[in-house]
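Q: what does this look like with magnesium ion bound?
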Amino acid sequence: MNDASSGAQHPVLPAQTLGRMADSLRLLAIDAVQQANSGHPGMPMGMAEIAVALWARQLRHDPAEPAWPDRDRFVLSNGHGSMLLYALLHLSGYALPIEELKAFRQLHSRTPGHPEVGITPGVETTTGPLGQGLANAVGMALAERLLAQRFNRDGHRIVDHFTWAFVGDGCLMEGISHEVCSLAGTLGLSRLVVLYDDNGISIDGEVRHWFADDTLKRFAAYGWHVIADIDGHDCWAVERAIAQARQWGEHGRDGRFAPTLIQCRTVIGKGSPNRSGQAKAHGEPLGAAEIALVRAEMAARGFTMEPWQVPADVLAAWDARPRGAAARRGWRDAFEAYRAAFPELAAEFERRSAGELPPDWEDAVATLLDESRERAESVATRKASQLALNRFGPALPELIGGSADLTGSNLTDFAGCGALRAGPDGALQAGRHVNFGVREFGMAGILNGLALHGGFIPYGGTFLTFSDYSRNAIRMAALMRQRVVHVFTHDSIGLGEDGPTHQPVEHASSLRLIPGLDVWRPADTVESAIAWAVALERRDGPSALLFSRQALPFVTRSEGQVAAVRRGAYVLRDAAEARAAIIATGSELALALAARDLLAAEGVAVRIVSMPSTTVFDRQDVDYKRHVLPERLPRIAVEAGVTDFWWKYRCDAVVGLDRFGESAPAGALYAHFGFTPRNVADTVLAVLAGGPGR
Ligand SMILES: Cc1ncc(C[n+]2csc(CCOP(=O)(O)OP(=O)(O)O)c2C)c(N)n1
Ligand SMILES: [Mg+2]
């Protein structure tokens, strides 16, 4: 049989060995925290046996090849327990030598304070902001099911892995856990297994005073399978629970496919005579005296280990390389058989896993641009975004996205995309549009998980004003350099009657402050098409695309100007004797052009700079920047949002909005707040007359 799941057998280890393995984790963690004089010993001590049960015996992974496509994914959502993960990686045989553990939390080490993907081999996602790792895990589990459905064939299960997440009380208190676990239950993501470190403690003390929910009933209500009341310090008990979850994940439980929560009752700081069971164990070094007591207790059990000196028998028991290599070889062989039977599918799987765009990608972009210029439509840029999706969706099978219950407003669906739905037997009914429900933050965290898993370019949609709900997950995508696209429509007071609750004012500027996030606010169909294309081509970070609710006029451009859109800003209209430059973005570009006409009639020539992406423009070379914005020209920026951001371009005046909007039709609001050609023209004239800077 060609099934990749026929991996190597797990070794059967005696209880005493398991205990020694757990104690080695404890000591590496507390010694590293002590050496750093910073970190969190309580969670690694409390989850040590759970970690042994999963990592030494169940997790399908290969330390020598941390990125092979069909590995199990492991997410440490309670990322403050980073030393647990580093100890696991070191002991399992990943390229994380003991020196790195000694350098825990130090500059340029591979053992940063919280786990960071891309820095440490074997770390699948960056965690620390509680709850988001769980959201990433949901995204990974969704990716696995979708890829399995797309690529697996009878007798060829080349996508067949589990996603395991450790979570603590903090993750489950966070609202995002509700958002994503509710969706995971609804979609029946049965290969997601969450191990809950139920220790009754968080930083402020005993959680019963602020977290008294019945977590098991809560998850049962989401439709999850729940395994209750496991002794988290009993390796065998945890392993039996894991094996049960795996069984249900693969075959269903009484025909029902669902994710599984395993409640592991643990003691924080287990093994520390004076700290265990207390909040004090959570986040401060134990101190030399207490560590000596921990060692003494272990010695009484027959386990001794000097700092950083893992006994040879324990190292040997931990070594996951032989088992990992066998599993990966098994998969490789299965994949070669698959390639022989389905060469095109195999090539497509490899392309998607590598994150490469298809060979005809550039044609798709060129065709869309030709169409856009030919049609010269004056439509809302949210509609322009959908036109782009109509072209790129069919061209990119890896594109998957949706909206947080605003599909008809965000226009995130495309022709023929189909809706993703839970299927009858644990399979998903393949569709490429995800109804994320009213869950902006959860959606953004899931998008990150889809991107991290590989094989997908995910996008999401909501109103720009609700980007605040998603914000920390957007920031995490930027920190992790993941290709995720956020469609944010209704991007200014131009949305009109819904009023100031829905009218973003500070959002464009504040998103631009996130390092590594590209923000686009295109002005018409052509700029929208290019913004989408650049976001999809970008391999090292997320993009936010800001689109209007209201229709915007088509703008004519030369070939050269079309090409220059990719540079973030370009000279759209010019005059030899221009006396000022008006910089505009998105819906205010048309306003700037109208002001230019007024000024021209009054004998004042101006240059118009369209700046759909400040973030991309900021990366251009100095020559180009000086070419677009020469020193000699006074600058006036126009954007229907806060002015603060624009002063960095050394503007002489900014036409903006430093207050919240109002409820009224868009046209009335634009007039009311001075977004009129006359006001923009007058501002230019005032600057030329040496007037005030606003
Ligand atoms: C979003 C977010 N808020 C706050 C914190 C700070 N913080 C880190 S750990 C923690 C308590 C977590 O409690 P629990 O998950 O039960 O961890 P344990 O103490 O049991 O290890 C808090 C509040 C954080 N990392 N992320
Ligand atoms: Mg806790």
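Residues 168-169, 199, 201-202 surround magnesium ion (ligand 2) (CB under 6 Å). Residues 361-546 form a domain with the Rossmann fold fold (CATH 3.40.50.970).
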